[in-house]
Task: structure prediction
Amino acid sequence: MASPVPTPRQFITSLIESLASIPLPTASSAPTTSSTETNPLKLIPPTHRPLLTTLYALYPSILLPALDLLDRRLATRIVVRPLHLQHDTIATTTTPSAATETPGHGKEKREEGDAAAATPSPSFFLVRSAQPQHPRRGHGDASAKPGLSYVVRLDAWNCTCAAFAFAAFPRGEESYIADADADAASVVAGAGDEGGSGGGLGWEFGALSRDGTEGSGMAGVPCCKHLLACVLAERWRGLLGGYVDERVVGRQEAAGLVADI
Result:
């Protein structure tokens, strides 16, 4: 019996996971030429390079710009510090002493703290544009300003750039928009199973979106260069993870970073 044809998102998920599992040479066996020092893709064994070629065939207009963003180190992972760590100082000063502590109360607090520590910290990405902003004629300083920044959320599968908006809502997809309300219940129900939309894999290209699935009305999964760059850096950490900076902030600072976009 022939196996069923995978959906577009299932195929791309398998492709990304295959790229992440490529065995890389160790530091002792890796060549030390200048080309490999500047281009980590040279470390991919020739037998596995067709995987990257396949990804290029699927996203020919954004794969190279996505890799360029990583090469320029324009992406930053923002990790929001857990709430119990943000208030350690306050908790230390307000915690009752052992002599006055209610029996069992301290154990409950410790269990709550352990549960909070086990919860993964929420994170998102800030990606700066590689294109500088050029002011209009006759508007003050004529020097170019740094490019715009965009917020990328992998779990929600969203980027604040215009390219992602056009990819997510292309012309001729009226049926998808009309069925959005009818499918809302199934989206919420699916988010509670298998940790989101992983379908047993734990992670899936497209995350919580339904694009690229059966009955979604979308043939593929919308993507932009910022989103693809963050996916590659997050899933292919062995090769590209070092090209993303990480910044740990509190909730207020994280809100300020997003508000400044």
